[in-house]
Amino acid sequence: MSYQIRPVDLTVDYPTLLKWWEGHKALAMPVYVFPQGWIVSAAGVDIAMNFLYLDVGGKFAVMEWLTTNPAVAYSKTLVTAIKTLIDYVEDVAKAQGCRFIVSFVAPGTGEERLMKKIGYETSAGPSHRLYAKPLPV
Q: What domains can you pick out in the chain, each with its CATH number?
């Protein structure tokens, strides 16, 4: 299968992201927290989105908010599509000077199994939960 990757356009793609989060019963984040992101698709169907954050010095990156289209959750090609997207995001990080990348992944998920399979290591300590809070302007 041939995959296409394109930059996320939040004016168009954020409503899709919200719908996917709702389908996964995930916490929706506000649109302004996404600096740069990409979508992988095949045969005209968007499959997954992923986002990249860089530290101030540019050597450390966080790959975050990997979210899949719930309509293709059990597709036989889902894992390959996600791996293609992760490889792409890693290449973008390297091209921007990053030398180390982390991602926060829920334990016991397919995403965790994939991350381990493609070379990511986990900390030995307990897993952490994400807590989010909007700050007043």
A: 4-117 (3.40.630.30)
